[in-house]
Amino acid sequence: MTSPRFSVIVPTRARLPQLRRCLTALAAQTVARDDFEVVIVNDGSPPLPDVELDAFRERLTIRSIHQEWGGPASARNTGIREAHGAFLAFTDDDCAPTPQWLATLDEALRATPNALVGGHVRNALDDNVFSEASQLLIDFLYDRFDSAATRGPRFFTSNNFAGATASFREIGGFDTTFRLPAGEDRDLTDRWQAAGWPHVYAREALVQHHHVMSFRSYTRQHLNYGRGAWTFHQARARRQTGVRETESPGFYAALLGYPLQRGRTRRPVVQVALLAWSQGANALGYFLEKLRS
């Protein structure tokens, strides 16, 4: 049997409706079915019902792997180990890639086979101010790192990037000391860059993110981001790949001004307040993790 060009790795944990929507989107990809497989890694939740996966098997080549809970970094590493494809594409169970997603990633990788290619993520929940704020922060960071005036490592979120399987395996996949969904993608991106391989931003590789959030879950997310930032800085210090980064006051001024730019959001004042709150939660999470460590 010929190996597929891509393995699409989808970690999941007790979110069957979201996974169903993700698989529906993957079944609508414009690339040929035989060109990719979907590797679902069930991270410690009850086994996925066969009837749910069987509904997609006529349109997708699916493999489902169960593991004891280890966190998203561990789940993605399981997918990396089990993948048959020459290239890996990552998304999450609460994401719905648009039909051209995989074809766009493939085009970029054909041009630069050793690149880590990151796509664009869009908040699909326009009426959820917390989901919007969470995505605005990512959009700000992408825009800032994409600026010619900014020096420093680019990062891609792990719900929308792709690269050669051999490269992921060579750098050891994701660092499983990141137990939370926070910082593990930033760390992998940093190690990819340290290996001397390029990063390519393919904005047209679009994923719709259906991340339902409340004030509580938004706060917890950014506390976790702070905890992940501490873990990342410690890992980077061990690798001696750079000193700990400290953002300038100008960074925070630009962040809080971001929602005020034309067309960014319908609720600029609310979003400025939520972004400010996120940075306070991030700082608290950072110092709590530092104390814990």
TrEMBL record:
This is Glycosyltransferase. One of its GO terms (molecular function) is transferase activity. Keywords: Transferase. InterPro entries: Glyco_trans_2-like, Glycosyltransf_2, Nucleotide-diphossugar_trans. Residues 7-140 form the Glycosyltransferase 2-like domain. It comes from the Bacteria. Pfam families: Glycos_transf_2.
